[in-house]
Amino acid sequence: MLKERLKSITYKRKIFLELAVMSLLPILLLTVFSIFIIRKDMQERMDLMSAQRVERVQERTDRILWSIWESYFEIFMTDSVNAVITQDLSYQDYSIYSDAAEKLEGQTYLRDYIRGFSFINLDTKWVLSSRGMYPLAEANNYSEVIGILKDKEYYAGKLVNSTKEIVKDLPHSTIDTNGVYMLFCLPMNAKTPQCAVIVNLNMDAFQEFIDDGDEYEITVTDKENRILLATDAAAAEYVAGHPNDVKAREWITLEEGRRVRLSSISRESDYFNYIITYESSMIGRESQRIISFSLVLIGVILATGFAVLVTGRRVYQPIAGLREKISGGMHGDKNEKGDDIRFIEKNISDMMSTIRNQKHEMVRFLLSRLLSGTIRKEEIEKYWNELDLPTYSDYCIMALTPSSSPGWDQDMERNILLSAIEEGALKSKKKDIIVSRVWNKSLILLIGGDTQQETEEKVMQNEETIRRYLKENGIHDIQFGASQMFHELEYAMRAYHEAVEAAKISEMEYAKSGNQEMILYADIADHGMERASYYPVAGETRVKELVDACMEKEACMEAGRLIDELYGQRMSTVERRYYLFRLLLAILEVSNDAGLPVSEIKVPEDKDILFLFSEMYGSEDMKRFINRQVIPGVIASLREFRSTHTVDIKEKVMRMIRKAKGDITLAECAEKLHYSTSYLGRILRCENNDSFSTYVAEQKLAYAKSLLEETERSVADIAKELNYANTQNFIRFFNKWVGMTPGKYRESRKKRTSDPVD
User: Which CA distances in Å does 522 have to 398, 499, 501, 507?
Assistant: First the structure.
């Protein structure tokens, strides 16, 4: 019957139907392909957006945790808190502690994130907490607290996750060790602490960061993968249950059947891990809108005619290709709708803006290194040329410093004010300033000119512009200072100190006479000395690096250059001796960091190093002493020390690895042997350049081979024995090192033992 109906169709209609099928089939295939590409692009875009979201959460959380940590270090330096740490005060002297208790509550702007504190004096046995004061002996959890304080890992104020539920109405005489807290042991450098401070964190305040109300779900865990915060309980439970299997950009199915994507996992934080997920339905919703638009667009194209489609596509192809290339290199949505020309123009503008911002930050960072003296001359020239910065024959540094009046006690307030001045006053003067930034509570401007007169004119013009801005905005008590002219950028640190000193003198003059004017260091400097002295920190750092690497010839050359530079400066004998003594201590510090006592460093004549140093005065004598006695002595002692200890330490590590059957980390070995992980890693690499992971892998491999050869246990059982959570991970590991799977290895060994011996 169907054949008869097909035969009854006229030839004209057949042609129409064939043309219709030929036209619709490519469109249908194109639509299916478009759906696939669109979903893929949408997934990449959402992965990128989620990664940016988790980075913002991590940055904000880490910034607050760092602020809490840093603020308590400042609090411990205050007189009131230092008194209760160092003085032998009894429990009855409560009035003395009132000011300390107020400070220990934390900075005002951080108190939302602090749940409370407990100050424990281990010498006089009392506890001062946010809930009152009482003798330590009356603490309900005395034994628990003493056990916590034995863990020296937390002495510097690291985070502790007790995993215990927070009790709101905690008894008065109970030290709060619930939830997450920071633990400080005081004094900081003491082997046995006199006091301890527990700062309890309010994790509910941190929860607000991650719960923005969007459809991205964030899970925050500690470094042991225990859940701290979560916006999706099911996703958090999965992450906690599969710590070793969780990978970024993979789809997982939760217990209730929901399919979610683990989009981004950040473990770069010093405090927590951050994992972000989103549901597959989000891609579907976004894709549906784009697909609907695409279908409408296809209909419009078909309506306007095949000729317009073909010719228009050919003419427009270069623009479409350019848009695709730009979309591939930008973070924006590749499927963004709108005029292509505007899209290209916008993204090129955004790209140029990003490049400018990155260059601006790199220039500011370079200025920071110049001011701190931690960059060598050749590095300055390299980075200066790479950043395409102007080079002048004369430079000057100008410093703006808020007066030390009671209104500007807070460093944050000073920096905000100086940043506002930098942004507002210097907008029109950018071309006259090479770079500016807020640095150590001062606004620093680096100004250059082809002549000294031109540089001085730029300095005066900038002062006039800034003072006009300050007057318009009602800002007072800002002091100005300018350094002497200098010709090489390596002298920027010295000029910075001159400018700041000049600003301080300006403040003193203002306090005496009420006159507010910029002080030039050239007007107050001792003209009998060519320049104020300075110490090349970057050179000292380089000498230490070369000594630590046992590169004797290079270290001696660098030390000789540094000594020549010190003797080339006009400075007092006492000041030069001080800098030379600092260089000597820096070299000796290398051996001390390696665990080698200074007394064991071999020098000629069997004399004390400091005694020999005291007999040196001239530059050549000092260079000979440093380059022929100190540096060779330190390097020789280091080599002997490292060679004699390497074999013993390596053997101890190997015994630990064998005992643990390879299930041990470098950090665990370092902790048991009382070495740092970096030092232990260097020792293990010094003989045959093998890493710790190689030793562990070899031990695991040897144990796995013995089980495969000597037992009939399954591969899954052997993987479990070696503490692999997933059998496939063990198979991949074995195949990587042996070149075959465990099953094939077992078969090959059986075949070899069964073959007759010729």
Answer: 12, 10, 11, 17
